[in-house]
Design brief:
The protein is α+β, with helices and mostly antiparallel strands. It has four domains: about 160 residues, Alpha-Beta Plaits (2-Layer Sandwich), CATH 3.30.70; about 130 residues, Sulfite Reductase Hemoprotein, domain 1 (2-Layer Sandwich), CATH 3.30.413; about 70 residues, Sulfite Reductase Hemoprotein, domain 2; about 140 residues, Sulfite Reductase Hemoprotein, domain 1 (2-Layer Sandwich). Helices cover about 30% and strands about 20% of the residues. The chain contains 17 helices and 22 strands. The chain has a five-stranded antiparallel β-sheet with strand order 1-2-5-4-13. β14 and β15 form a beta hairpin. The longest helix has 18 residues. The chain is globular and about 70 Å long. The model has no long low-confidence stretch (mean pLDDT about 95). Bound molecules: siroheme and iron/sulfur cluster. Siroheme (SRM) binds next to β1 and β2. Siroheme binds next to β1 and β2.
Length: about 575
């Protein structure tokens, strides 16, 4: 078959995938090479499908170069956790692995997964084995496959929420690659003798053209930003029963400065399917993308571009052919918000859950705020669930009334006092950026908290400290913190400089618009202050900040991804 492919026309990654023998590459040899802390180039690409990225400490970049040393290589490991739900035992396992092999922190990601940072090559296998010993895995957490499937984060909230979570879990299992390379390389399990006989029935030998992302939402909560995903299922509830799902396709946040053809785009609702059709619909949408996505240019290879290049009607026709039936017309639905609802809540089964704000998703012990120790002690002492949200926060769920008191006591003991934060901070997301992300132009996770403190003091002056406003920052335009769906968005341009975007809405159904470019902190604060003052004075009753800036014409609403400007 390789004779019939003109590799020169395709992106380099296509050949690497094809020649990898179903994701084996030369990973075993790369791992065994003692000379370097890195992997061979092709293996850096293949290892993504196994849930890891090779990185280097960017804080040390210049000094290492000066000393003529290779970069300080280490790896991030991403754990696949459909719907973000783990047991206390699994939490403890991750906590221990972070201390044993990583940088003593846990990162809760914007896709309800764990990341470990700073794992050196010689510890990769032990870490992956530790994760698997905790009955978790890292398969397909990265790479050109379907990634961790998200869902509304609290199955304990009601039976409907449990059903939505189960749907997400089943989709994730259904779309896993079938190669046994992962088990062979990391777990020393030789599952079949002749790997050449192996096939990937869904993915084929070149996998997808690019990453693929799915969520399952349950209105009115858009807490996994359904319109930012390649594929979103929106639960339709009638008489307290999920009668099916609206199907939304073609969302994505990634964009590139100076490339107008690479833009964020919101998913479009194309129809409705029954609960029993969900797996087939997910699979066939993935296959339409597998067979038609752009394999030449990775900047244009997500489903959103396949749809924009061919048209949504073509996409629907093609999907219906793959499905062998037509989706029904979409049903009405409405979202009210896209962030998390903080604090204690009682579930349908009379158990309690606490949604805790985790700044930047980083679970650490720092400056007397010992969140990591607190959560470890909670996991050791309560019988519940830990649920990672799509906004980098954490829900301690399924807690009995007695344990509820215990949780509060433990949090206080470790200096974690939920509830004392502003509405702005509660609704903040910052991507990782420096020092680990190789693509960052500027800080995000390490900087946003202090910027928020300064914006808070402006909000406080105008009596808006508790006002919920969605604010997001990323260190580059790739969009990992979904900045283009925020009411106030910052995207890093260079060290200390950010583009400022305004006018997304509170329920995550509108892209924001570039307001000012390449601002320093002083300029950001100077730009925001008069707008906040105006908002305090002349907003309508209940009017959210993102809607206000559009009504007052600070920016014009972005109606289509293709019209988005950097
Ligand atoms: Fe992301 C690449 C971190 C969610 C769009 N993302 C990266 C890498 C792996 C950098 C790299 O390729 O070398 C970052 C690693 C940084 C680090 O040191 O940890 C990275 N992305 C993250 C996380 C950890 C951000 C966070 O702070 O939570 C999120 C992990 C999610 C997970 O558990 O799977 C994360 N990334 C997202 C999202 C949000 C989402 O999925 O809901 C997006 C936007 C949605 C989308 O995909 O369109 C996103 N990441 C990207 C892109 C741009 C993709 C594109 O279509 O252009 C890249 C770059 C790429 O793929 O070339 C990227
Ligand atoms: Fe890195 Fe950019 Fe993603 Fe932030 S948005 S984690 S800087 S790739």
């Amino acid at each position: 078959m390789s004779d019939t492919i003109n590799w020169d026309e395709l992106s380099e990654l296509e050949r690497i995938k094809y020649e990898s023998n179903y994701l084996r590459g030369t990973l075993v040899e790369s791992l065994a090479d003692p000379i370097t802390g890195s992997l061979a180039f092709a293996d850096t690409q293949i290892s993504k499908f196994h849930g890891m990225y090779q990185q280097s400490d960017r804080d040390l970049e210049k000094e290492r170069k000066r000393q003529k040393l290779e970069p300080a290589y280490s790896f991030l490991i991403r754990v696949r956790i459909p719907g973000g739900v783990v047991t206390p035992k699994q939490w403890i396992q991750m906590d221990e692995l972070s201390d044993q092999y990583a940088n003593h922190t846990l990162k809760l990601t914007t896709r309800q997964a764990f990341q470990l940072h700073g794992v050196i090559k010689s510890n990769l296998k032990k870490t992956i084995q530790g994760i698997n010993a905790g009955l978790m895995d890292t398969i397909a957490a990265c790479g050109d496959v379907n990634r961790n499937v998200m869902s509304h984060p609290n199955p304990a909230e009601s039976e409907l929420h449990a059903e939505v979570y189960e749907t997400a879990r089943l989709i994730s299992e259904h779309l896993l690659p079938s190669t046994t390379a992962y088990h062979e390389i990391w777990l020393d399990q030789k599952l079949i003798d002749d790997s050449k006989k192996e096939v990937e029935p869904l993915y084929g030998d070149c996998y997808l053209p690019r990453k693929f992302k799915i969520t399952v939402a349950i209105p009115p909560y858009n807490d996994s930003d359904v319109f930012s995903q390649d594929l979103g299922f929106i639960a339709i509830v009638e008489e307290n029963r999920i009668i099916g799902y609206n199907v939304a396709v073609g969302g994505g946040m990634g964009s590139t400065f100076g490339m107008p053809e690479a833009y964020p785009r919101l998913a479009e609702v194309i129809g409705f399917c029954l609960p029993e059709q969900v797996l087939r619909v997910a699979e066939k949408i993935l296959l339409v993308q597998r067979d038609n996505g752009n394999r030449q240019n990775r900047k244009r290879s997500r489903l959103k571009y396949t749809i924009d290049d061919h048209g949504i009607d073509w996409f629907k026709d093609e999907l219906h052919k793959y499905l062998g039936f037509e989706l029904q017309a979409p049903k009405p639905y409405s979202f009210t918000r896209n962030g998390d609802r903080m604090g204690w809540k009682k579930g349908a089964d009379s158990k309690w859950s606490l949604t805790l704000f985790v700044e930047g998703g980083r679970v650490a012990d720092k400056n007397g705020f010992n969140l990591k120790s607190a959560l470890r002690e909670i996991a050791q002492n309560i019988d519940g669930k830990f649920i990672l949200t799509g906004n980098q926060n954490l829900i301690v769920a399924n807690v009995s009334a007695d344990d509820k008191k215990k949780v509060s006591v433990i949090l206080k003991k470790f200096g974690v006092l939920p509830g004392e934060i502003s509405g702005l901070r509660q609704n903040s997301i910052a991507c990782v950026a420096l020092n680990t992300c190789g693509l960052a132009f500027a800080e995000a996770e390490r900087y946003l908290p202090s910027l928020i403190t300064k914006i808070e003091s402006i909000l406080d002056q105008f009596g808006l400290f508790k006002e919920e406003i969605v604010i997001r920052m990323t260190g580059c335009p790739n969009g990992c913190g979904r900045p283009y769906l925020s009411e106030i968005g910052f995207v890093g341009k260079s060290e200390g400089h950010y583009n400022l975007y305004l006018g997304g809405n509170f329920n995550g159904t509108r892209l924001n618009t570039l307001y000012k470019e390449t601002l320093t902190e002083t300029q950001i604060l100077a730009e925001l202050k008069p707008i906040i003052a105006d908002y305090a004075q002349s907003r309508n009753d209940g009017e959210k900040f993102g809607d206000f800036v559009i009504r007052k014409q600070y920016v014009v609403a972005t109606l289509k991804g293709i019209d988005f400007k950097h």
